[in-house]
Amino acid sequence: MKNNKGYVRFVRIVLLLVFVVILAGSVVRTTHSGMGCPDWPTCFGRLIPPMNAGQLPKDYEKYLSLQDIDHTFNAFHTWVEYINRLLTGVLGFAVVALIVVSFRKFYKTRPSIAWLSVSLMGIVIVESLLGWLIVRSNLHVDTVTIHLLPIFVMAGICVLMIHKAEGSYRIQDKTLKWISTVALVLVFLQVMIGTQVRTSVDITSKALKYTEREKWLSNTGIILTIHEALAWLSALACVFLFWRSLSYPRLQKLGFLLLVLIVGELVMGFTLVKMDFPAFAQPAHLVLGSAMLVTIFSYRLYFRKRK
Fold first, then answer.
1. How confident is the model at residue 65, as a pLDDT?
2. Which residues contact 182 (CB under 8 A, 6 or more apart)?
3. What is the pTM of this model?
4. Which residue has the higher pLDDT, 79 or 4?
């Protein structure tokens, strides 16, 4: 719908912020900065964290004793984690604004869109509570992994809101509908198994004091093998979606984007395995995988019944 272009643009900005938060969270994990702010929601008991050890509060030792990496103040870790929290806050304010706009524009005509925007705020609250739990549990690996799930749901809701606001038509293609469903399940499983690989890497790297990167994948076992096998199945499904999308103008951009994402994801995965888990490839791998999941979900929505 043409008169909804501004609204759709706003939702896309919120979706972009979701990916920025995913990237920021991955950088936090990659740089081992998760306990850079050892309390929550403040940081060393302050709204704005210290820049150096001289700005630490008098009772700072009670915070440092909770840190996962070491017991010395690390300004880099502190500010990486603090920026991650700020970006999550920006996302929260953007969602509040989106709720206001959604109710003004759609409450009487398309109430489902308005209530979907409210669900986004619910997810932001859940994410914040999980952030508190992560700090409370001193970065327990399972808690960190669970922290990802709500943000994926949030991205999916944004995509659904865009489709509803645009009033996209339905495409009749049973084969493509089935393959897109399979691809969505495969990529979701890939992301979840990937988090388990990452959990294993976190445990091993911590035991090695974050040195000897060539050994970080040594204890992943069959999980990594499954992850690699599913990667090729996912790639085949995505290539098929790209090929079939050429027959549908509405799907061509999504199909091409999906092709670019799967190539980038495979390259980053190969880089992680063959180059001893370089830091730059870890956030890229997660963001590309997340983008694939969201893109396939958007693709799949073209085959749902319009309401």
1. 58
2. 237
3. 0.89
4. 79
Query: What is the mean predicted confidence (pLDDT) over 3-13?
Result: 93
Query: DSSP per residue over the chain, as a string?
Result: -GGGHHHHHHHHHHHHHHHHHHHHHHHHHHTT-TTSS-SSSSBTTBSS--SSGGGS-TTTHHHHTT-SS-SS--HHHHHHHHHHHHHHHHHHHHHHHHHHHHHHHHTTT-HHHHHHHHHHHHHHHHHHHHHHHHHHTTS-HHHHHHTHHHHHHHHHHHHHHHHHHHTPPPP--HHHHHHHHHHHHHHHHHHHHHHHHHHHHHHHHHHTTT--GGGTTTT-THHHHHHHHHHHHHHHHHHHHHHHHTT-HHHHHHHHHHHHHHHHHHHHHHHHHHTT--TTHHHHHHHHHHHHHHHHHHHHGGGSPP-
On whether the 170-307 domain is CATH 1.10.287, my answer is: no
The 10s digit of each residue's pLDDT in 166-222 is 876 788 888 999 999 999 999 999 988 988 888 888 888 878 877 888 888 888 889
Q: Hey, what amino acid is at 211? A: T
Q: Are 291 and 261 in contact (CB under 8 A)?
A: yes
Among 47, 26, 22, 50, which residue's Cα sits nearest to residue 36? 50
Q: How far apart are CA 184 and CA 237, in angstroms?
A: 9
Is 60 exceeded by the pLDDT of residue 115? yes
What residues does CATH 1.20.120 cover in the chain? 170-307
User: Is 203 in contact with 219 (CB distance < 8 Å)?
Assistant: yes
Taking a C-beta distance cutoff of 8 angstroms, is the pair 35, 67 a contact? Answer: yes
Report the pLDDT averaged over residues 14-25: 95
User: Nearest 5°: CA angle at 170, between 167 and 171?
Assistant: 145
